[in-house]
Amino acid sequence: MPLFTKKYESKLIPPRSARCNTGCPAISEDLDEFKSISLNLGSKELRFADGIWIHSTRKADTDDVARLNRRIKTLEEENNMCNLKMEIFLDLLAEQTTELNISKSKNV
Question: Where would one find coiled-coil regions in this protein (predicted)?
Answer without folding.
Answer: 58-85
